[in-house]
Each structure stands twice: as C-alpha cells, then as structure tokens.
Amino acid sequence: MWMDTKTQIVLLGRRKLLALHRRRDAVELLAIAVIWVPTLLFIAEVGWGGFGDLIKTVSTLNRLSALIVTSLLIVHIALVARIPWIESIVGLDKLTLAHKRLGKPILYLLFFHAFSSVLSLVLVDSKSLIDAFLYLTLNYWSLALATVSLALFVLVVVTSIRIVRKKVKYETWYLVHLLSYAAIFASIPHQYELGTDFLVQPVLQTYFTLLYVFVGLNLLWFRALQPVVMSLGANLRVVEVKPEANRTTSISIGGKSLARFGAEAGQFFLLRVLTRNQWWRPHPFSVSNDPGKEIRFTVGNRGDDTALLQEIKVGTRVILEGPFGVFSESKRSRQRVTLMAAGIGVAPIRALAESLAAEPGDITVIYRVNDDSDAALLSELERICRDRQHKLQLVKGPRAKNGSFLPEVGPGEAWQADELRLLELAPEIRDSDVYICGPAAWSKSVKVALKRLRIERSHIHIEEFAW
C-alpha cells in the first residue's frame, strides 16, 4: 500500500513488512555462512579419521576450535564495523547486542583453543602443562603475541559484564573496548605462521584473508576515515545552543551539504566535540528535529560529560559519525502510528512527529512527564501536533510505585490495568506502528502492556538511551 500525502509518498503494508524480514534474515544467514563454510570444509577434509586416539582427537578439536573462533571473531568485529548496508537493515542497537552476546562464547572458545594447543604438546612430548606453555610462548613469537591477545580479550569481556559496566563511564568503557581491535590484530600472525589449516589448505587461507581484508577496510573507512572526511568537508560547527526544560540543552549543528549525511528523523549520531578535552570522546545522541538545514541534538544533563556539553560554545567544530539506527519511518508498515516518549526520549519522538507522512488523525503522541516544568520540547511538540493535526496526550503525574509506565493513580480514582489505560489514550493502537523511546525500565513496562494487547513485535519499535 502506498500512502500519498502532500509532501511524501511512503510505502506501507504487509509486503513492506515481509521485505524488511527477508533482508534481516539474509544478513543473519550471511553471518551463519561465514562460520559454517570453513567448518564444513574442515569436516570434509578430516572426516571421522581425525578422531582416533587421544592425541588425534585433541589435535582435531584444537584445529576445529581455531576455525570456529576465527570465524566468530570476524563476525564479532563486522557487527560493530558500522557497515551501512548491514546497519540500515538490522540497526546498530541489535548489532551491538549481538556483539555483546558473542563476547563470552568467543572467550570460552579462545580458552579451549589455547588449552588444547598446550595439551597437544603435553601429550606428544610428555611435558607438564606449565613447561609446554612456556615452551610455546618463548619459542614462537606469534604465540606470545596470541597470549597477549587472549589477555586483552579477558579485559574487554570483563568490562562488558553488566555489574561492571554500570560502574564504568561510557568513555572509559569505549577506550577499553578499542583494545578488542588490538587483540584481534595480535591473534592473526600465529594463524599464518602455525595454523595447520591455513598452511595446508590454500582455500581456507584465501577465504580468511579475504574476510580479514573486507572487514578491516570497512572498519577503517566507516569507523575512522569517513566521519572525519565528511565532517571536515562539511565544515560542521555548533550554530546554536538553547537551554530547554528539565536540565536539557538543544545543540544545533550546521554546515555545507548536510543532506549528504542521509539522516532521517529518529536516527542518532555519535558526536565528537573538537575541544582539547573532548575530541576523543564519542557521545551518542538522537536527532531531535527533522534534519534538513541543521542537525539538532537535545542533550540531558546526566552529570557526566553531558554536563560539559551544556556549556558548549557556538562555533565549536564537531565530527559526526552516522547516522545510525532504524528507529525511523523506514521500519513503518502501518498508516496509523503511536509515538510514546518519556524523559529525554522525547528527542527522537519529536523529530518523528514532525517528519512522518500522515493524514490528520493518523498519529497519536503520548508524552509521559512529571509536570509541565519537567517536559523538554513540550512547546515544540504542541505546535507540531496542532499544525499537523496529531493527537497529543500529555500524561502527567508522579511515578507509579508498581513500576507502571503511567502515573500513580490518584485518591478516589479507580485502578485500571496499564493496557486498558493505554487503550483510552490511543484507541487505535492495536492497528498502529508503535515507536517507544525513554528509560529502559519505562520502555519495558510499555512493552508488557503492548504484549497484553497482542500487538505484534514487528510493529513495535524501541530506542533506549543506554550503552
């Protein structure tokens, strides 16, 4: 179905939804193929003959674990290489989540591979485990480098554990995770010097070399070079700094040919401010306007580096990496849309309210605040909804004690289940695409209510401000 408004023509309907699913499935199949191709080639060559006595079995498992973990590492890095045709299908949030989930299995496989390498020497030369380990690391420089690589992976995975991550600043976590690239580079030499399958199977050596080159070049261009080249070429600078309600500040970025960045409302950038103390620190912020002549971010003061950004000077040069995310019209498949915001989550919701193709009454905006003074961008949202004839539901009141995304029920008011209250706010929500942005706990509560209303997951789009 095509939706034709005065300003936009947007493809909607079941066919679009199926096309989105097919593209996502194709990316997942590609990742699976990267792992299975070398595994199947190895099985075809070795067969059951590799599982004879104990020495053969340990050697075979060592070789197989090497191929699998190498494939996983390549996928692991590709997930966060910012490759546009992958990110635009899956979304950086889901790619990052998959990257996190692969961390521990990769570490376990690395330990198994390292242990089986040492154990193979123990079984062949009757050495102790310690003597075998020292012999390998002292006599083969590439294995010593691989040992350093393993230690770096341990550090990266430990800092990714939730309880540790909560105590670490985003900037510190980011710097530590740059070590994962050093860890991968340090692991490569021993594969070409001592890797049995790399040495005896030219097909596998060529296969992995091409994968390393492909991922490495994409990583270098999209994560390092392109943001600098495009930002400096566009002469990006801060053109306006405007204080907003609820300890937030809107920062507008101007420059030449901003359309080249291809930003859509609802997406986000990684912002680097080119000052002496902040140039190396990336800050993820959602676009809070319909990006055209300017790209604007509305930043909440959380007490970390975001506090410094409240005082940024007009004229300061910046570098933008992105845009990222699929919290945009590209994932929309229904004519009716419900936009739900809480806290600083109003930034991308306000941008979507301004830019989504819509007929009068198609869009309902639900904005959860404590009171009017707590509502950042409220006056803009009211103007947009009035001009475009959206329905605006401002939901005010203190936070509910039961964890509801709605306010506490007042004295004398009858209690209702969240999903019933939500239906009162947005009667057409069952036939809508639902966009949700706010704190993680709040968004989770909204998801529970939507599940009870039996709204399909494919029509629920969530952006959380977390890392």
TrEMBL record:
Its main location: membrane. Keywords: 2Fe-2S, FAD, Flavoprotein, Iron, Iron-sulfur, Membrane, Metal-binding, Oxidoreductase, Transmembrane, Transmembrane helix. It is a multi-pass membrane protein. The keyword Membrane applies. The chain crosses the membrane at residues 26-44, 64-85, 106-124, 140-161, 173-192, 204-222. It holds the Pfam family Ferric_reduct. It is found in: Membrane. InterPro entries: FAD-bd_FR_type (IPR017927), Fe3_Rdtase_TM_dom (IPR013130), FNR_nucleotide-bd (IPR039261), MRET (IPR050415), OxRdtase_FAD/NAD-bd (IPR001433), Riboflavin_synthase-like_b-brl (IPR017938). The keyword rRNA processing does not apply. Residues 231-330 form the FAD-binding FR-type domain. One of its GO terms (cellular component) is membrane. This is Ferredoxin reductase family protein. It comes from uncultured Micrococcales bacterium.
